[in-house]
Design brief:
Radius of gyration: 24 Å
CATH superfamily of the largest domain: P-loop containing nucleotide triphosphate hydrolases
Helix content: 25-40%
Number of strands: 12
Number of helices: 12
Order of helices and strands: EHEHHEHEHHHEEEEHEHEHEHEH
């Protein structure tokens, strides 16, 4: 093989490591700052030593490399040492990166991590959502004018084994979708304030009979504001389910809307990924029912169809 560097770039949790391993299998030497430590520019010293002292002539490098400045030193070294340098750009939506980050947590730790747990695991390939958004904001698309011999744009596609991930579900927001309050408050703080909306029970029972799982995903920011406790929120969810007369496995996010410190608050896809992995759902067979733009974005990032409550419960 000719002297070559494959520079794999993209958001955190975009699949760069998997892509790099395919080149390692072909005989490339992998250099990654997260494993070696130090700064990105320090990797040039490793290139120099491996090439001059060990005769290594093929490298794959897979950090974010989100800006022209971050890529500059590697490109210069490649040019000065007569190496081809290809940029393989994993192009994906921010929603896919967020989804992948949660899936990686669940695969590694068996659960979605809390904000405090994410901080403790920051050196183990776990990124807070703000890190992914920061990369998106600073990202500069690669160009041959930088010095690349070739740029390969690699479209990202989620992979789920449909023989395993085959179940279908209705995923439901609670407030404004399944229930309202007797008091007129936005969220119920006590079970006695819960009132279910019309036609909910009949519609949901119909979907149960058709083999759909019923799942709930709710933001409960009142908890972070100390207006209510998690225990009170659970009591209200249980009361809602009792009034509906159906079993709904629900999850809720107790964290504040801002700053974005967790993956569980919609429109983050965290609760959806947990459900997909727990119940082996086929996202294309799932419908998210919610009353807000946040619910619609949550559905899109999760691979779910979306329906507004009035449409879903009136058409069913």
């Amino acid at each position: 093989m000719a002297n070559k560097i494959i520079l794999i770039i993209g958001y955190p949790a975009s699949g760069k490591t998997v892509a790099a391993r395919s080149y390692v299998d072909q005989g490339y030497y992998r250099l990654n700052r997260d494993e070696i430590g130090g700064k990105l520019d320090d990797l040039v010293n490793h290139l120099e030593n491996l090439y001059k002292n060990d005769g290594t002539t093929n490298f794959v490098m897979d950090n974010t490399y989100s800006t022209r400045q971050s890529r500059k030193s590697v490109i210069r070294w490649a040019r000065d040492n007569n190496f081809e340098i290809e940029c393989h750009w994993i192009d994906l939506d921010i929603g896919d990166a967020l989804y992948n980050a949660v899936q990686r947590m669940i695969n590694s730790y068996g659960k979605m991590l809390s904000p405090d747990q994410i901080k403790k695991c920051k050196d183990l390939g776990v990124y807070p959502p703000v890190a992914i958004y920061k990369i998106r904001k600073s990202f500069e698309e690669p160009s041959v004018e930088e010095g690349f011999s070739k740029i390969v744009k690699v479209p990202f596609k989620r992979k789920l084994d449909k023989s395993i991930y085959s179940n279908k579900a209705i995923v439901l927001d609670y407030d404004g979708t399944l229930r309202k309050t007797k008091s007129g408050e936005r969220y119920p703080k006590t079970p006695n304030d819960v009132e279910v909306l019309p036609n909910r029970t009949e519609t949901l029972k119909r979907y149960l009979e058709e083999g759909c799982l019923l799942l709930g995903a709710s933001n409960q920011s009142f908890i972070s504001k100390k207006v209510m406790t998690e225990e009170q929120a659970i009591e209200c969810f249980e009361k809602t389910n009792d009034l509906l007369g159906v079993k709904i496995d629900y999850k809720f996010c107790p964290h504040p809307a801002y700053p974005q410190i967790c993956y569980c608050r919609k429109p983050m896809p965290g609760m959806a990924v947990e459900f997909i992995e727990k119940y082996k759902l086929d996202p294309s067979k799932c419908v998210m029912v919610g009353d807000s733009k946040t619910d619609k974005t949550f559905a899109s990032r999760s691979g779910f169809q979306f329906s507004k409550p009035d449409d879903f419960f009136n058409d069913s």
